[in-house]
Amino acid sequence: MIQIDPIALAQLKTLQLQLSQPCAGLRLIAEGDPCLGVKVRMGWSAVQQPEDVMVQLDGLTVLADRHHWPLLKGCQIELGERLGEPGLAIQVMPGGCQCSSARCEPVRQAS
């Protein structure tokens, strides 16, 4: 499940209320590879697509293509800063990733 910091959630909900056009939700788009790094883009989406996964986070609708969902489902969204500018930071930790050991591979199941 996506985790979102309460302050970031409140800011996103405020931004959504200020939109001039109807909005289906906040779209997350994952690009990259779990081992080499995943970059997440986001933006407001006017419509929900048939291939979308939709998640409700305390009044905020988050949308993602079902093909991106495996990379996004464990992400954490919080307030952050980039080059001195405030914004949102999205940390992605895909399932099965063992980045603490500097290698990403499927978790071995006990037999």
UniProtKB/TrEMBL annotation:
Family matches, as Gene3D superfamilies: HesB-like domain
InterPro entries associated with the record: HesB-like_dom_sf (IPR035903)
Top-level taxon: Bacteria
Name assigned to this protein: Uncharacterized protein
